[in-house]
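Example record for the data management plan.
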Amino acid sequence: MYQSPARVFARLGATGPAPAPSLIMGRAVVLGASVAGLLAARVLAEHAESVLVVDRDELGTGTGHRAGVPQGTQMHVLLPAGRDQIDRWFPGFSRQAVAEGAVLLPAAARRSYLDGRRKVPGSDVDMIAASRPFLEELLRRRTLALPNVTLLPGCVTGLDFAGTAVTGVRHESATGPVVTPADFVVDATGRSSRLGDWLEQGGWERPPMRRMAINLHYATATFRRTEEHPVPVAVLAGCTAAGGDIAGAAFSAIEGDRWIVMLGSYGDDRPGRDADDLVRRCRDDFPPEFARVVANEMLGTVRTYRQADSRRRDFHRLRRLPARLVAVGDAVSSFNPIYGQGMSSAALHASCLSEYLRSGADLHRPAREFLALQRVVVDAAWGMSTSADLARPSVPGPRPPGYRVSRWVADQITAASVTDPVTARRFDAVVEMRRHPNSLAAPRTLLRAVRVNQARAR
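Corresponding structural encoding:
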C-alpha cells in the first residue's frame, strides 16, 4: 500500500525502543567504521550471529583525527533526528556524551542570524555539541561493546559473488590478502566508495551517479573557553545568495573547554589557513558574539576543507542488483556539509536497514524494499541541500524543471522564519530532519509565510 514520503519519513524517525532481536543470518560484514558503518553494525547485531567491521584506519581508543575522515577536523552538528536515532539504538548515549565532556546546547542558549538579522526562536529541542572525533569514538566504543561485533583493520579490495548474491569480502590483512565469507554486506566507505567498480568487476551494473558542483570551502579553528555556562552557547550566522558566495559562520562550545568556529564560502571566496584572517572575518563580518569568541586564545592551527561537489549514487535505478548487499551514508549520497545533515542521514539509513530486516525480507532477492525506504531519506536531504545550493551565483546547475517555483516557496518560508515564531518552528523541524520537507509546502504554512512577508514589507 502506498504511503506518502512524509509518512514514511515520520515512521523512520520514530523514537521508540529498539526492536527485539531476530536472528536471520550468520556473518554480516560492514565496510567502514564511519558513523554510518557503526550504526549499520548496531542494527545488524540484532539479526546476525556475528558482525565484522572492516576499516582501513588503525582505530584505537583515542579521539584523534583519522585519515579516513578528512572532514573530521571541521565543525560538525548532530541534528535532533540523528541524536534521537542514536539514543534509540544506544540508550543513554546523549547523557553519556555530556558526562564525558560534550556540551548540552539548550534551545534558549542558541542564537541564529540570517543575513545579519537575528531570528526569532524556532526549535525548542536541546542539542549536544562535540567534535566529530569525540562523537565517533564514543559511538565506536558503544558498538564494539556489543558481544557479536568485531573491528578488523584492513583495506577492502573487492567483493566475491556467486549466482545472484554477494558471498564474501576481499581485503588486505597483516598476513596478506584474505577473503571473508559474508551472508550480508554493507558498504559504508564514504564518498570515495569503490562499490561501483566492484559491481562492474563482478559482472553487475554500476549505479548511476549524479554530481553537482558546489566548490565549497571550510575553515575551522578552536579557541580556549573559560566560561562554564556561556550564553549563547552556540550561534549560527547564515547568509543567503543575496550575500554572494559567503555561506556563513558558526560557533559552538565543545568538549575540552573549547570553542569551535567555522567559516564557509563558495567559489573563489576561500577562507584560508591564516589565523589573523579568520579572526578578522569573524570580528568584522559577523554578529558581535563571534568577536567575543575569537578574542580568546586560538588552540592549534586553522584547518581547511574543500568539497568540490555533491554526489549521489542511485542504486534504486539499477535493473540488476545482487542480493545481500546495500550501501549507506556518504557511499550513497554525499551532499553539501554546510547544512549538517550527514550524520543524521546516516542514522536514518540505519533505521531503513532495521525496518527492512524486521519486515521478513527475503535475503535471496535484491534489497529493493530497503532502497525504497532509503530513497525517501536521500530525496529529502538531497532536495533541501541542492535547492539551496542552486540559489548561489557560483553553482552552475543545471536547475531542474520547476526550480523557480520551488525556490520562490523556499525563499518565502526562509524569510518568514526570521520574524514569525510559528514559521520558524516549522522551518527548524525540517532543517533538523524531524519532519519531511514536504511539510513546508503545505498551503497553510506557505500562506502564513506570504502574509508575514507582505506585512513586513509594508
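Summary line stored alongside the record: The chain has 13 helices and 18 strands.
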